[in-house]
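INTERNAL AUDIT FORM
Audit reference: QA-55
Scope: verify that the stored structure record matches its stored sequence.
Auditor: D.O.
Record contents follow.
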Amino acid sequence: MILSDECLSPHVVLAQRDHLRLEWRRPYPALERVRPVAWTCFCRATVYELCEGGGRAFIRRTVQRDGGHEVYETSVYSIHEARAIWAALLSGRTR
């Protein structure tokens, strides 16, 4: 995880050679009430958010492009599992 002097949110580091690959899918109404509780810096083209609600959680990935953006999400996990995946994402152990 990298924080620069100008950015308030972390950046993900480069994926490690042996990183685990997450399955990303188009958004679906997994949880009715969800809120982002952590996110990466919006200065990068790809932004990640850890979203939690109702005792469950998932990670949202938004790829910002000139013509708009594409949103993908992981499966829904327990909050404990999602936070472990979040830490792995920030450290480059998963992507």
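Auditor finding: record pair retrieved intact. The longest strand covers residues 56-65.
Action required: none
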